[in-house]
Known about the structure:
This protein is of the alpha+beta class.
Amino acid sequence: xxxxxMKAVFLAGMAxxxxxxxxxxxxxxxxxxxxxxxxxxxxxxxxxxxxxxxVKTTASSAAFSLLPSLYAQQETEVSSPRIRAIKESIKxxxxxxxxxxxxxxLGEGNNGYLQSxxxxxxxLQERSxxxxxxxxxxxxxxxxxxxxxxxxxxxxxxLDRVGxxxxxxxxxxxxxxxxxxxxxxxxxxxx
Length: 191
């Protein structure tokens, strides 16, 4: 007679143990971060060709924008006044960074940040300007990644992951001959 209550207690204990082992998996919106990174980097680094292609694409897809599913996809762009301001700051600084990329002084790191590779050939004043540019760019990138993460409800612990997704885009848009960091941490010139 005592075996039925013991069996019920045992089964209840096992059910409780199983339920307590369930972990909550927090969703990381990798696709959305990648799309946002691609849009932002294309806007900052994209040339006239990409802008012309974008105009053609927009014009040719205008007829399809009435379809609800496509319209909803167009509305998923991540933006805020802060993101736009940071993006414009990065865009305005880009022309000043190009000579340093061309000279091999700067490299696109695999973590989403620029890295100083050498300062030879720069005067003290030029080094100061170079270091300020580098610092300002990396500060803006850090703020950008934080704002994108906030807009997509990404946990702060995943900010490095956001940076790495952006790194793929920065490296992809780097010009031939610019220094890029491989996944193993080594540096190479982009072909």
